[in-house]
Design a protein that fits this description.
about 230 residues; mainly alpha; 2 domains; elongated
Length: about 230
């Protein structure tokens, strides 16, 4: 609880409008009174806050003694699960790729046989002046090739269905994204955040001279007030 409520209320009630040297002096007296009252408030609550903070730190320490080994075990199991599931997906993707290559190879071979057979037959018919039959042979070959391409397309659509990795019902997965900087010079300016802490230290040390050191800043002088 507050040590002196009356002192606190009295300090809050003090007001002054600075118009001349006399009211300026009064303002300094009020400022000193406020400072004393703030010290009284701190003395009232700081010990309580300190004890609560110490109890909080102790509770966190005790909790972490039990929690950290569990966190470590959890992280390791998740790591192994992730590796296993990524490898399973890679295997299925590789299987998918091999199946696609196979059906495309089979398609190319069948089309080649049909084209060569049809061309040979058309040439023979043309040599016998059976041009109409020759054209029909080529047209039939084109129709067969079109049918083969249609079948292959259907097979590709079946094979290219999204890969589903079966996982236990007790876990869920999500795709996480992270990044690493490979060339800082190519990062757009809006993503380069100035180190304001470092800049502030240079400004405090070098004052107006910080403008030339840092570049791109303007040092602003402000009058600070403190009571004694």
């Amino acid at each position: 609880m507050l040590q002196n409520v009356n002192e606190y209320n009295e300090a809050l009630s003090l007001t002054v409008e600075i118009k001349d040297s006399e009211t300026q002096e009064m303002a300094c007296v009020v400022l000193s009174r406020i400072k004393q009252t703030k010290l009284m408030v701190s003395n009232s609550f700081d010990p309580i806050i300190k004890k609560a903070h110490e109890a909080h730190k102790q509770a966190i320490t005790q909790r972490d003694e039990y929690m950290k080994p569990l966190d470590k075990a959890e992280t390791e199991i998740k790591r192994q699960l992730s590796i296993y599931m990524i490898e399973e997906r890679r295997k299925k993707e590789e299987e998918q790729r091999i199946r696609l290559e196979l059906i495309r190879k089979e398609e190319a071979e069948r089309k080649k046989i049909i084209e060569e057979t049809a061309l040979k037959k058309a040439q023979e018919l043309a040599e016998q002046n059976q041009n109409k039959q020759a054209d029909e042979a080529l047209t039939q070959a084109d129709n067969k090739i079109e049918q083969i391409e249609t079948v292959t397309k259907i097979q590709e659509e079946i094979i290219n269905k999204p890969i589903i990795i079966i996982k236990p019902q007790t876990i869920s997965t999500r795709t996480n994204y992270r990044f690493e900087i490979v060339d800082k010079s190519k990062i757009k300016p809006e993503f380069l955040i100035p180190d304001e802490v470092a800049i502030r230290k240079i400004v405090l040390a070098m004052k107006e001279g910080a403008e030339a050191i840092v570049g791109g800043i303007r040092v602003i002088k402000e009058l600070g007030i403190s009571s004694r």
